[in-house]
Amino acid sequence: MPSVVCTGHEYLGRSQEIEARGPFKYRLLAEGDSWMDRSSLVIPSLPWFLAQEMDNRGLPVLIINLAIAGSELRQLVDIMKGEFVWWLGQFRYDAILLSAGGNDFIDAARDPDPGQGLLLNMAGQPLPADGYACVSQAAKGILEDYLNTDFKQLVDAIRADANNQSTPVFLNCYDTPVARNAPAGPGIGPWLYKAYQKNSIDPSLWPALTQGLFQDIGSVIQGWTGFDGALHAVPTTGVLDAADPASGGSSGDWANEIHPNASGWTKEARIWAGTLVQVLGT
What we know:
Elements: E1 4-7, H1 8-20, E2 26-32, H2 46-56, E3 61-65, H3 73-88, E4 95-99, H4 102-110, H5 137-160, E5 169-172, H6 192-198, H7 206-224, E6 231-234, H8 262-280
Parallel strand pairs: 1-3, 2-3, 2-4, 4-5, 5-6
Helix pairs in contact: 2-8, 3-5
Protein name: GDSL-like lipase/acylhydrolase family protein
Organism: Roseateles saccharophilus
GO molecular function: hydrolase activity, acting on ester bonds
């Protein structure tokens, strides 16, 4: 039988119908940001493409998806006190899929006034040799500390549930985008492009800066796997073809500035499926 991806609300309204489409090899709970929700108004995200890939492997899955585009990890910690914890108590899941941390870095770069967030205000400053020099190391340290604290709370909430004390949790590691003026829709992005412009960062520095920021994101996520032995970072970095910096729309494997398109998700889904099978078996 084919896989099913549904929101929590959809499952509650159609649970008998959905369960009748089984049996499912794996029952998965997805939570997090837009990489678990959707790339744009017309392109879904990982769960839908992962379901297709699992069907291709003859391993149908049921994915109950709680993700909300734009969510930061600190918001997920608040959410875990309600919907997420409730859903944890409903089933013993074969795995939990989580995408978190990326928005926290991006928002810390984009939202504050110039020089007051993750990025230094480079207005009137000499051009550094390396774009990564535009990152405030003090702000990065504060950001990483709160991310680690919040993620530990999230893990503790999962492990406190009797059904899911040892359930594997798979962590999205994102991939490195190209900073460009490519929004996801009216009033939705771009993200890095706006952050860099706000802080007067020369475009020649953008590639190295973006590379450094996403290496930092990856390092934080890899560090989370040390909290317990059932946390797995999915190796999604270096998978996608880069976008053309001059493009304002879909380019390479990217639908917009920071989200994959269908070809990108197909590649990412293969990596995710392979990692799931490696850990969970067939």
